[in-house]
Recover the amino acids of this structure.
């Protein structure tokens, strides 16, 4: 079994509906570690040694956050800047994360069609997430397309449940040794890759 | 000889060990425990100690001598200046009032005016030992009542010096020394010469303090032997006492003067911590001896006279003191405490009565009765305090057994948080919680503060937070958290112990006064420990770094890291500490602790490991 580390960064978790539903009960899922960053480091003083030890113990890294101003909340950036050190995560001798997998799981208020060249935001979600992609590649990790929940403000109860189920399914696949996400990179969203294959359902 | 010494020691120490804990458990306070223990082993009940009780009394009086040395040490010029209004105002009014009233009482009983003056002055004394002990045990040291009572007793202590100087002037004959004491300098001197001599001696002591004691202590301190310093401190006290006895004055006076002289020196705290245990033991012994020496045959022989005098004097002192408290604006609750603790006759009265006996101002038999009256009166304050707390204050003062619950202004109703102790520490917590809509229930034993808080709409229970009934009425059964923020670490620990036993459902968050206090709490198995000076000191240090030119964020991070590191070091060192069986921390041990900490810091500077954003590092 592969170990999945969810780095969850939400500065207003108590007010969120979708994210609460997404992470509810994840503590009990085998192979998944939910790491609530704003709960662990309210003073932004990230314990680098502890985080590096956590990374070493996991195979898959999920950056899970609400999409704020086209990026992650500040603490996750703080985490990336302090934990992924030169000489440890990257650089000629920095091989600690080599061969691991990284991806982004996010919630966004805007619908999927505003993240298009013709749409309001003029760029695709993948384009906005380029820094995450390149960070993963710099650290010699495999980078998968994002898992995204769009239009959180207008989400109906059954739509939300469908997203929650999809996220569960994704995490289940991520923990499997025999699953290598072949062809996933061809999709814009991991949601699409999941929808295209039903063999595990 | 040594066999009988050991036997005596056995009896006295066993009395202390048995009766004081029982008295504390019953809520009577340690003084009453000592006194009752003494009465019980005395010649009139069990008879473990007989006539030799008198000799023990002489020995134990050394405890009083030491207490006065410490009282003198307390008289830092700055403290006296700060309390000047109360010392000179309330002190003078209370003492003049009681002296006059007792003088009138004695005159009415048919004594001469000299005897009446002497008696009035002696009877106006109150015991600072009892006052301090009671307030400390009740955790009320910071209340207005405590400060006022201490100021008044301070005034009495100071006035002993002129009283001892002036009494010989009134004596019809020169002092007659007791047959078994060595010859003294003032034998056969006329009164005015004694007065002059005393003034000269007092000045000589002040002079000696500056130019002999302090250089001597500096010399001893350089040897760096802990026990030698203790010995030197005891030497000064003993030497002064002996000198005074040889001259013919009270040894207590000598020790008091020596204390006053050393109060301004750099050795004040060291002396205090070194003498403190001796004082405590000897003072306990003194109270036992007082109990044992209460002459019940005198009381039985003249029951009306003795009891009448005790009740009369206590009543007079209570009335005068109560009026004084009122005059100086104490609230009802505070005034009750103030009045009760000052209503006994203090240990200085023993000294004064003995001196009066030597001067033959009063006949031997009367002196004996008065000594008995003094000892008996000391039983009153602890009992009266108890009575006031249980019977009087519930009906009058601020205390309510069930406070009316406010209509639930906050949506969730009672927050389930109890704050015990609303001093500078607890009050900040309470305000912070309230600012966030959490209404904590507050327990405090300062009635003035309770009044104010009630007016501000807090739910406050007045009383001793370690008492089960008060905790219950504050809702400890259903509450979730108790914040133990009482000033006195000892009482705070009592509280924690009780709460853990009686209310295991309550999570306890505890204030620690110091690192040593935190160690004790860790030993007691506490988890949530908050050292009160830690965060503030670090915050100040961070500001220093910023003012020195550090970037603010780096300085703040350094502070965060130091806090984390120090909390970890606390737990490591707490475990190591047991190798040194250092349970009683003294000033010296605190310095050793600091040294140890600094050494650890040097080996493991927390911020050297902060390599965040450091692009040059590669290992």
């Amino acid at each position: 079994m592969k170990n999945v580390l969810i780095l969850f960064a939400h500065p207003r978790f108590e007010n969120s509906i979708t994210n609460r539903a997404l992470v509810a009960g994840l503590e009990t899922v085998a192979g998944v570690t939910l790491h609530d960053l704003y709960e662990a480091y309210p003073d932004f003083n990230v314990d680098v040694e502890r985080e590096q030890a956590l990374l070493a113990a996991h195979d898959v890294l999920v950056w899970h956050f609400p999409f704020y101003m086209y990026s992650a909340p500040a603490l996750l950036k703080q985490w990336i800047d302090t934990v992924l050190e030169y000489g440890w995560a990257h650089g000629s001798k920095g091989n600690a994360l080599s061969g691991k997998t990284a991806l982004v799981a996010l919630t966004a208020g805007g619908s999927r069609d505003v993240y298009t060249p013709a749409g309001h935001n003029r760029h695709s979600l993948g384009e906005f997430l380029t820094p995450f992609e390149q960070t993963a590649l710099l650290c010699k990790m495999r980078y998968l397309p994002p898992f995204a929940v769009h239009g959180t403000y207008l989400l109906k109860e059954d739509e939300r449940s469908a997203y929650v189920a999809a996220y569960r399914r994704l995490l289940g696949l991520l923990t499997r040794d025999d699953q290598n996400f072949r062809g996933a990179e061809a999709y814009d969203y991991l949601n699409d890759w999941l929808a295209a294959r039903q063999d595990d359902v | 000889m040594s066999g009988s010494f050991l036997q005596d020691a056995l009896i006295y120490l066993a009395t202390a060990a048995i009766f004081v804990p029982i008295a504390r458990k019953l809520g009577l306070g340690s003084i009453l425990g000592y006194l009752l223990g003494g009465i019980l082993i005395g010649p009139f009940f069990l008879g473990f100690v007989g006539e030799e009780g008198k000799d023990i009394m002489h020995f134990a009086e050394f405890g009083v001598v030491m207490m006065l040395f410490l009282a003198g040490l307390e008289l830092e010029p700055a403290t006296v200046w700060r309390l000047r209004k109360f010392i000179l105002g309330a002190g003078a009014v209370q003492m003049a009032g009681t002296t006059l009233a007792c003088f009138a009482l004695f005159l009415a009983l048919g004594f001469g005016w000299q005897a009446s003056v002497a008696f009035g002055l002696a009877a106006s004394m109150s015991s600072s030992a009892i006052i301090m002990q009671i307030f400390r045990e009740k955790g009320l040291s910071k209340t207005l009542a405590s400060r006022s009572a201490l100021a008044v007793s301070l005034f009495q202590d100071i006035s002993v010096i002129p009283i001892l100087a002036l009494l010989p002037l009134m004596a019809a004959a020169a002092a007659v020394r007791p047959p078994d004491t060595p010859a003294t300098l003032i034998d056969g001197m006329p009164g005015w010469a004694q007065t002059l001599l005393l003034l000269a001696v007092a000045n000589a002591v002040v002079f000696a303090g500056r130019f002999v004691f302090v250089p001597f202590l500096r010399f001893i301190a350089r040897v760096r032997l802990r026990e030698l310093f203790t010995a030197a401190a005891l030497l000064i006290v003993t030497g002064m006492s002996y000198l005074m006895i040889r001259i013919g004055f009270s040894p207590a006076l000598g020790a008091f003067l020596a204390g006053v002289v050393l109060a301004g020196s750099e050795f004040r705290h060291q002396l205090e911590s070194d003498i403190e245990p001796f004082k405590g033991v000897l003072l306990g012994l003194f109270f036992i001896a007082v109990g044992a020496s209460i002459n019940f045959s005198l009381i039985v022989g003249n029951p009306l006279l003795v009891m009448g005098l005790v009740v009369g004097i206590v009543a007079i002192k209570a009335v005068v003191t109560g009026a004084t408290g009122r005059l100086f604006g104490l609230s009802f609750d505070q005034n009750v405490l103030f009045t009760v603790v000052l209503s006994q006759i203090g240990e200085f009265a023993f000294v004064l009565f003995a001196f009066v006996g030597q001067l033959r101002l009063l006949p031997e038999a009367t002196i004996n009765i008065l000594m008995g009256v003094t000892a008996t009166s000391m039983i009153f304050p602890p009992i009266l305090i108890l009575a006031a707390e249980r019977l009087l204050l519930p009906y009058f003062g601020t205390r309510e057994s069930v406070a009316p619950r406010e209509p639930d202004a906050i949506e969730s109703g009672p927050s389930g948080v109890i704050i015990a102790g609303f001093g500078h520490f607890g009050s900040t917590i309470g305000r912070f919680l309230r600012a966030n809509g959490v209404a904590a229930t507050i327990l405090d034993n300062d009635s003035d503060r309770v009044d104010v808080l009630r007016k501000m709409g807090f739910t406050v229970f007045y009383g001793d937070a370690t008492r089960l009934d008060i905790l219950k009425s504050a809702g400890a059964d259903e509450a979730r958290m108790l914040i133990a923020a009482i000033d006195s670490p000892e009482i705070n620990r009592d509280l924690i112990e009780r709460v853990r036993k009686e209310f295991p459902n309550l999570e306890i968050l505890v204030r620690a006064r110091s690192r040593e206090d935190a160690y004790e709490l860790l030993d007691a198995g506490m988890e949530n420990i908050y050292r009160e000076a830690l965060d503030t000191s670090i915050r100040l240090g961070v500001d220093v770094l910023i003012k020195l030119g550090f970037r603010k964020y780096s300085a703040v991070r350094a502070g965060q890291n130091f806090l984390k590191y120090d909390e970890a070091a606390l737990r490591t060192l707490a475990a190591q500490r047991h190798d040194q069986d250092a349970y009683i921390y003294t000033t010296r041990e605190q310095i050793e602790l600091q040294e140890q900490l600094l050494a650890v810091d040097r080996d493991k500077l927390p911020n050297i490991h902060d390599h965040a954003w450091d692009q040059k590092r590669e290992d």
